[in-house]
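Researcher: Predict the fold of folate gamma-glutamyl hydrolase.
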Amino acid sequence: MGDEYEPILTQTPRRSLEREGHFGIKGIALVLSVVSVAIVCIVVNVVPLRQNPPGTTLPHAIHTPNPIIGIWSQPASMFSDAEYIAFPYVQWIESAGGRVVRIPYNATDDELGHLLGKINGVLFPGGESELNHAATFIYERAKAINENGSHFPIWGTSQGFQFLLQLESQNESILDQVEAVNSSTTIKLVRGKNRLFGFSSVFDIMESEPVAAHFHKHSMLLDHFIAYPALNSFFQALATSKDRLGREYVAAIEARDFPFYGVQFHPEMNAFEFEKRDDGELVKSIDHSLNAILASQALANFFVQEARRNSHHFETPSAERAAVLSSHQTTYIPSPVFQEFLLFNATL
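Model: Structure tokens for folate gamma-glutamyl hydrolase follow.
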């Protein structure tokens, strides 16, 4: 947020105070004003200001205009010794002014420690991978980075959203089964102050139009979430959705004191995922309308803006260029969810 300046006031001639053995009312007021200012100055210098918890969206500085997001790659079941990142995640981040590097699925603690010190945020994508030690390390290290004064966001989409719940609860069996594969729905925003949906009034679209693309068999029912203190004390449920059986489940969360955010739906699909049958009909239930794109873009803008709030960076521009995926070739592979991928050698 930019500095605020008080207007420059032009000086006007002032009449001399009349000296009749006392200062008069105006003189007393002047003395009291000076004393008040002195007291305020003493208090400001002696009493420490309250520190904002990590993740708050109070006025803040932008440290990195073009942040770099690490996306966690996953094992590619169709190839041996390969990992992938679905390309729409990269496009979604880049559409908001960010860039992307890969976080290897089985990266070592040392590799992750070095990389997390260079990037500005992490995205756990959707998929069908197993929660592993690397994911746990990323989550705990991100907490430590925030506790040490750096604003370091995490975003989870679909399975990535589920990972956040599992990691915080330390319970991989916490999820509930739902019927929400290949469906596009509205979401119900939970009223109250929050950072994510308070970012833009565009999100009101999501309550009235079915723009949220769901491709998941698991989530967490709202009643289950409310009854789980270890989770609802750390995360705030921001929105809910209903599956085909009418069961209400949590659709969006944010951590109360950390910049950690998750959505059960796929905002990257609205603008970047298309697949048609031979008859021209879209295979997936994805809304590509203008309003759907606006909501998707606002979510990307929010997350990338959060990542601008820390100053992590690569040592040199050449090291940065070697890491970002902007020139990495994509591969087209028909699949039930995504069609275009970035493939990597899992041993590298």
